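Response to reviewer comment R2.3. The reviewers asked that we include at least one raw input/output pair. We reproduce the pair for 2,3-bisphosphoglycerate-dependent phosphoglycerate mutase here without editing.
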Amino acid sequence: MANLVLVRHGESTSNLANVFTGWLDVPLSPTGEAEAHTVAEKLRGYHFDAAYSSDLIRAERTLDIIVARPAWATIPVHHAGALRERMYGDLQGLNKAETALKYGQAQIDSWRRSYAVPPPGGESLQQTQARAVKYFEAEIAPKLRAGQDILVVSHGNTLRGLRMYLEHLTPEEVESLEIVTGGICVYAFDARLKIMERRLL
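Raw output as returned:
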């Protein structure tokens, strides 16, 4: 049996400012730094053979804090553009509340929560999922099938897409899937990558 641990990065400065972030490369806020340390504490006792993160600094920093613990200090770490947050296009850097006043909350909800509708100039969740799953199948799944335990630190929408794929969620079900900053989801798989157990920490 192999474990896959999915972690959303800690709060970023853009999360704090309530702006659409996407591929903007912003750091963790002080709260985000604390959330990353809390994740590391919650994962105390877990074994990892390898760790992966997005190549954006908020995910990299969260992973750095986690693997700074002596038990994980020597595991291989990989940073991948395929695990980046959804690209929010024309909305990147805009305040969410102000944008909702301009376009209407229903339109904002469609861009943010739907599976197939992209924001202007950006990626839909479906497109984000496609690149993340392609990377997962090529780089991570073979290790899980071999019985290795893997840690992945990424972003809210990227993890929504991966969880939709792993749990066979429908587009309607994924609309309501919320993943908080510092959120942890642990899967236990058999050799065929059938989920034996899922826990939220």
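DSSP finds eight helices and six strands in the chain. The longest strand covers residues 2-8. Further pairs are available on request from the corresponding author.
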